[in-house]
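This section describes the prediction task in plain terms. A model, or a person checking by hand, is given the sequence of a single protein chain and must write out its three-dimensional structure as a string of tokens. No templates, partner chains or ligands are provided. The sample shown here is typical of the held-out split.
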Amino acid sequence: MTIAATDRVTDLEQKLDDMSMKLDLVVAELNEQRLRRQQWEDFVADATPLAGEALAVASRELEEMQEFVRPEDMLRLLRRILRNTNNIEEGLATYESAMEFLSDAGPLANQAFLRVLTMMEEYERRGYFEFANATVGVVDRIVTNYSKEDVEALGDNIVHMLDIVKSLTQPEMLAVADRLLAVVQRQQQLAELEPEDPPGLLAIAGQMRDPEVRRGMARALNTFKAVSAAETKSAAATIDANTNDDSPQGGA
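The expected answer:
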């Protein structure tokens, strides 16, 4: 056999091999298509009864609802849904954002709740709630024993009362009150040791020789004098005010 004939045989074998490979691909494609067609036919065969049952159920439901829902109502609802597609999408986006926020804020809310519980336990341990209950009882007694007019009068004079309290809370006034309380307590202790019979006039007059007794009486008299002067001045101012009110100019 010549070289040319050998080459032609080789080319022919190569072409046969290529054709055989292509035929294999075609056969594989046909098998795959046949498998898909068989799967689709199986699916249709399985789904047909279900679709028929679903249609029957839908038909029954529509028959029951036809008294309440008319086709034009459904069309109007569908048109509204189509017109508000953007709003529905924004609402869904807002809902998703809210759900993400709740998911992120859940641990923080739990921590805050635990912190509040801890604070409430601490307040209960310190007696805040018992104090609040006692305060409610005090308020109840105030409401029971005082009328609306009494409360209004208290409101009118509350500024003056606060001024008095402010004056009483000055350091010098607190120091005087502390000394007076100490003296009263000491005198109470000494009173238990005094004889049952009251002292006579001579004994009282004899105490006048004590410089502290005379100094105390002088301070007491000066205090009474200052109080009397203040009361006299206040009474005079009240009389002048009443006189002005009763005068023709005041009446005008």
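For orientation: The chain is about 90% helix and 0% strand.
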